[in-house]
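Late entry, evening session. Most of the bench is empty. Finally got around to the prediction I had been postponing all week. Sequence below, unchanged from the version circulated by S.P.
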Amino acid sequence: MPRTNYNNTAGLKYHTTQETLLYASLSIGPICIFLYINSVLLFTLRSKSVFRETSRYILLYNVLFADTVYLVLSSLLFLLAICWIKLTFYMCCALIMLAVLTVSISPLTLTVMSLERFVAICYPLRHAIIITVRSTGVAITLVWLTSSLSIIIRVLMLLCSNTEFSFDLQMKDFCSEEALFLVPMYYYFATAYSGIVFLSAGVTIICSYIGVTLVARSASTNKASARKASQTLLLHLFQLGLILISTFHSNIITAAATIMERSHVLRLYSLSFTCLTVLPRCLSTFIYGLRDQTIRPFLIQHLCCQWRCSAFLNKANAGE
């Protein structure tokens, strides 16, 4: 969160604190709701063997796990920044590195999920041979290794650019990626890496969508599944676009802080955090959790507690 200058009067401090708590509370509500829904869906995906042994659900669990971890870390960093709390260098470094590791998992996994849908619709007879639990595990391993490689490069840059290391070294500014990495080379690397990841994911999803759409138009049977798959790919593309925009979140706030008052910056910070950081990480729940007929009944059952749903269903059956 960028620093702005204010008079050190007691009234202004009280007003600023109240304002900060207000905007923080407005953002915490949606965060808690989305975290609860994501956590329930993660539990649902591990509760049945059909989910644990199906490739598309294994991939969904992977992207949901990464998104949930990223949501927790980004929410923590958001609260620390908006409450003006600074961390030690090593604590900030650990949080940022873990957040950067998980942030690229989503676009890479979305790419694999799009290819899985493409194979399922365009090559249905070979789907069971190509997309297996083993091949899915290999794909997930490659996704995490790719993200881990970028973290190793970032750590090496951090070691080369910092000569002062101490366990009680305090951050001069609030914990953020911009405050941690000060060398220009890092921004070139981060921009190039993000560009390659998002460009590759976008091209793959678009090509998969075109292939699935052509099959949906030409196929005489199973058109409903093809249309649903094409809609899923469009939602993936929309989700990828939101994630790409969220990478510019800090730049938007930094630019706004130079021309706007603190109250407006706090409002913009809370709104953009909810829309650009929280929302993209929860779209997978909507895309698969609510649209998938296999997951939906179990998800709703776990969301509203099993005994309540059973009582409701029993009353409904009795009424019939």
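Two things to note before I forget:
Confidence is low (pLDDT under 50) at residues 1-16, 315-320.
DSSP finds 15 helices and no strands in the chain.
Will write this up properly tomorrow.
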